[in-house]
């Protein structure tokens, strides 16, 4: 899953792809590198980010979704707003990546169910503006797993087909360095929920803490985290640079005899 952030303020590439033409060119490059899915988003969820309005989000993402949808590109919409998801699904997206796990908008589950779309349910403690203010858990892995099980059951009860649902432990969403590492170490327990796991560590802050590197220089750290997650059962990897992670996954997949 290649990241296409059509935002002025994303933590690692804010402003770079705010112009539709730049976002579309970037998306095509990620596809050429081997991305199976493009995750187009118009609202940053970085720690401390302020929410944006529905109108602004639509204005950012729709020209990009429409252009890529017309080319038949495989598209995910990264949003927690039902109206944005609805418009993107109508224009060719087939996947909704909702970091609130269908809690952000009471209409979202119905939109996903009606479209027969795939959906990713992400664990987040609190909300982006405050989620990194001293997050605490008893057992982070147990609590994230319980949350995802509860959201999965809720989504199915709302009419979303279970085989369309993906789950994501939400690396960096209300987690300390230790919480993130524990989640990676025990990711097999999250995979044990029984739905495919999406894993999003790309360029995140914990990699900076460990390596001392700035966002754009965290590709080796990103690849390392993705490989560890792959070994523990993750199925999809949300990344800003597709080629390095795909190379690494090909080597790991051949070695472990998994695809
Ligand atoms: N992380 C980000 C955004 N969306 N979706 C899923 N499923 N999992 C993630 O870990 C995840 C996500 C944050 O990264 P990014 O899009 O690069 O930054 P920003 O939120 O600042 O736009």
Distance between the termini: 15 Å
Count the beta strands: 8
Radius of gyration: 17 Å
Shape: globular
Structural class: alpha/beta
- Uncertain parts: none
Descriptive report:
With 259 residues, the protein is an alpha/beta fold. It is 44% helix and 12% strand. Strands 1-2-3-4-5-6 form a six-stranded parallel sheet, with helices on one face. Strands 7-8 form a two-stranded parallel ribbon. β2 (38-41), α2 (54-70) and β3 (75-78) form a beta-alpha-beta unit. α1 (20-32) packs across α2 and α2 (54-70) runs parallel beside α3 (82-90). It is globular. 47% of the residues are buried. The model has no long low-confidence stretch (mean pLDDT 97). Bound molecules: 6-hydroxymethylpterin-diphosphate. 6-hydroxymethylpterin-diphosphate (HH2) binds next to β1 and β5. 6-hydroxymethylpterin-diphosphate binds at residues 3, 5, 7, 10-12, 41, 44-46, 78, 97, 99, 120, 122, 168, 170-171, 198, 200, 238.
């Amino acid at each position: 899953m290649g990241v296409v952030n059509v935002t002025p303020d994303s933590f690692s590439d804010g402003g770079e792809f705010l112009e539709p033409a730049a976002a579309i060119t970037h998306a095509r490059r990620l596809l050429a590198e081997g991305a199976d899915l493009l995750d187009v988003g118009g609202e940053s969820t970085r720690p401390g980010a302020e929410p944006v309005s529905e109108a602004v989000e639509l204005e950012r993402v729709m020209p990009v979704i429409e252009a890529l949808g017309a080319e038949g590109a495989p598209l995910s919409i990264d949003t927690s707003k039902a109206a944005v998801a609805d418009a993107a699904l109508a224009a060719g997206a087939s996947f909704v990546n909702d970091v609130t796990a269908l809690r952000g908008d009471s209409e979202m589950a119905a939109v996903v169910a009606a479209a027969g779309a795939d959906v990713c349910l992400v664990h987040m403690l609190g909300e982006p503006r405050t989620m990194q203010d001293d997050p605490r858990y008893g057992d982070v892995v147990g609590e994230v797993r319980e949350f995802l099980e509860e959201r999965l059951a809720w989504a199915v009860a709302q009419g979303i087909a279970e085989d369309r649902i993906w789950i994501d432990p939400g690396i960096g969403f209300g987690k300390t360095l230790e919480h993130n590492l524990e989640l990676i170490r025990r990711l097999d327990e999250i995979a044990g929920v029984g739905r495919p796991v999406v894993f999003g560590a790309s360029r995140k802050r914990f990699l900076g803490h460990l390596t001392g590197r700035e966002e754009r220089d965290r590709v080796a750290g990103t690849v390392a985290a993705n490989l560890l997650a792959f070994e523990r059962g993750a199925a999809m990897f949300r990344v800003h640079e597709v080629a390095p992670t795909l190379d690494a996954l090909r080597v790991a997949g051949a070695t472990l005899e998994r695809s």
